[in-house]
Design goal:
Strand order of the largest sheet: 1-2-9-6
Oligomer: single chain
Structural class: alpha+beta
CATH architecture: Orthogonal Bundle
Protein name: Cytochrome P450
Shape: globular
Pfam family, one: p450
Family: Belongs to the cytochrome P450 family.
GO molecular function: heme binding; iron ion binding; monooxygenase activity; oxidoreductase activity, acting on paired donors, with incorporation or reduction of molecular oxygen
Keywords: Heme, Iron, Membrane, Metal-binding, Monooxygenase, Oxidoreductase, Transmembrane, Transmembrane helix
Helix content: 40-55%
Radius of gyration: 23 Å
Bound molecules: protoporphyrin IX containing FE, 2-acetamido-2-deoxy-beta-D-glucopyranose
Length: 497
């Protein structure tokens, strides 16, 4: 029974593929080169568990612009600073929309968010509000007390581990630090000691990220892929994840509606104000669904990325005692006597900032950025980039490009001495936040969370590898997902000064 359904499924796919193939034959434009395709699956079999790595290998064979078919979907990937500049600067306007994907549709209430919305009037206006009201410098400064509070909790817990010489699970602790900060800033409630700290909530975000990052047949086989998603159970998982996140947002919003006095204004307060004022964005009234979609964006985009950066930075530093000593002496010479280093003070830590940039070069948390969709045809290096193609920039490959970086495999923060390169999307060899119109709108917030977390933990503790472990034994593998974390949790022993 199941077998015959599979057969039917492949038959339908075959027909759809043939139709698509014929559509493409009509144009006589010159597509970028790429690996040979199989019928129906196209190049899907060439993507391993870590697609950014597979694509990097393919780009070394086929060049900086490659064309592939992922299922039936034409996909182009660029992998050098110059081709990224073409996409993100020169032809940004041709391709700054987002494709419709099953997971993102569900988790964004039909694209009523910022990250997955297509390029349209709604997106322009909601992004502007985000930049002006949610992600601005003033708002980040207003989050400082929250960051202090979360940081002192972590310092206390590490002091305890230090006195018993037990390793701490830094992968976990960084995540709970950023989750704590972002939850308090968004919902005004603290993550550790209230409703949020349930088993279920702890799983909500990783689960949603997994769904967004997982192979969904409907994204590669329009019209028919949804059948496959029913078989694999992905559909059910997606429904459940969306339902739980919805219930959670609903609960948070209701809590705010009951709140009588204006305390510290959080993200929910601000978004509720837009709803109450009956603001019109694009051509639609701003409603409860918009609020939820934006809150979910913030949870999914803001928590993992910063935590992952801190985990990789501490991993690289504990592999190299010279760099560790150097960054710690910079911090301690300036702020050694401080309980907690402030957000503003982290600006003075030049070497730490280089360490963070170098971490982003080798470990961009979201290595393929977020897929774009081409709306107007253009050309790169003489190759046609056709309409309705999915377009990705491989920031991970760019960080390892030997023409852009000397000894690209070596973690060397000093390479940024006397260099203007920063991570804000103006230098196409370093793109942890993407670039162009779709660049991460919260660069300042993300950077500050990372600088603050690292500066303080490096200031207050020395860090030792667990008993019997040597620097060269440290595992550097990546774990698959929408954001790329270290596969093996980082365990280190804090040593009190
Ligand atoms: C170290 C931390 C962070 C990193 C590395 C990061 C990285 C990224 C990347 C690579 C993109 C896609 C850019 C593109 O498609 O070209 C993005 C988009 C986005 N990020 Fe971040 N991000 C971080 C922190 C945050 C935080 C804290 C928030 C919110 C509070 C946030 C909200 C968003 C949103 C809303 C978008 C979608 C923008 C759009 O499509 O218009 N990010 N981020
Ligand atoms: C680190 O913490 C996470 C989250 O609590 C847990 O799943 C993981 O097993 C821990 N890792 C180790 C090596 O203890």
């Amino acid at each position: 029974m199941a077998l015959s359904l599979y057969l039917l499924y492949f038959l339908v796919l075959a027909i759809v593929s043939i139709i698509f193939l014929n559509l493409f034959k009509k144009s006589n434009s010159k597509l970028p080169p790429g690996p040979p395709k199989l019928p129906i699956i196209g190049n899907l079999h060439q993507l391993g568990e870590l697609p950014h790595q597979s694509l990097w290998r393919l780009s070394r064979k086929y060049g900086p612009v490659i064309f592939m078919k992922l299922g039936t979907v034409p996909t182009i990937v660029v992998s050098t600073p110059e081709t990224a500049r073409q996409v993100l600067r020169v032809f940004d306007l041709n391709c700054c929309s987002r494709p419709s994907l099953a997971g993102s549709k569900k988790l964004s209430y039909n694209y009523r968010d910022i990250a997955f919305s297509p390029f349209n009037d709604y997106w322009k206006e909601v992004r502007k509000i985000g930049v002006q009201e949610l992600f601005n410098i003033k708002r980040v400064q207003s989050m400082e007390p929250i960051m202090y509070e979360e940081m002192s909790k972590i310092i206390d817990s590490f002091s305890e581990s230090a006195s018993t010489k037990t390793p701490v699970n830094l992968s976990e602790k960084f995540l709970s630090l950023t989750a704590g900060v972002m939850c308090k800033a968004s919902f005004g409630v603290s993550f550790q000691d209230t409703v949020l700290n349930s088993e279920r909530f702890n799983e909500l975000i990783p689960e949603a990220l997994k769904i967004l990052g997982s192979f969904s047949a409907s994204d590669f086989y329009p019209y028919v892929g949804w059948i496959m998603d029913r078989f694999t159970g992905l559909h059910k998982l997606r429904e459940r994840s969306a339902r739980d996140l919805d219930a959670f947002c609903e609960q948070m919003i209701n809590m705010h509606l009951k709140k009588d006095k204006e305390e510290n204004e959080d993200f929910v307060d601000l978004l509720l104000k837009l709803e109450k004022d009956q603001v019109v964005l694009g051509h639609e009234k701003f409603t409860r669904d918009n609020i939820k979609a934006i809150l979910i964006n913030i949870l999914l985009a803001g928590i993992d990325t910063a935590a992952i950066t801190m985990t990789w930075a501490m991993t690289e530093l504990s592999r190299n005692s010279r760099l560790m000593k150097k960054v710690q002496s910079e911090i301690r010479e300036k702020f050694g006597d401080k309980e907690i280093i402030s957000l503003e003070e982290t600006d003075e830590l030049e070497y730490l900032n280089m360490v963070v940039k170098e971490t982003w070069r080798l470990h961009p948390p979201s290595p393929l950025l977020i897929p774009r969709e081409v709306k107007t045809e253009f050309e790169i290096n003489g190759y046609t980039i056709p309409v309705n193609t999915r377009l990705q920039v491989n920031a991970w490959a760019i960080g390892r490009d030997p023409d852009a970086w000397k000894d690209p495999d070596v973690f060397l923060p000093e390479r940024f001495v006397d260099s203007d390169i920063n991570a804000k999307g103006q230098y196409f060899e370093l793109l942890p936040f993407g670039g162009g119109r779709r660049i991460c709108p919260a660069i300042y917030m993300g950077t500050k969370m990372v600088d603050f977390g690292l500066a303080n933990l490096l200031n207050r503790f020395d860090w030792k590898l667990p008993e019997g472990m040597k620097a060269e034994d440290m595992k550097m593998e990546e774990a698959p997902g929408l954001t790329i974390n270290k596969k093996h949790d980082l365990l280190l022993i804090p040593v009190k000064l």
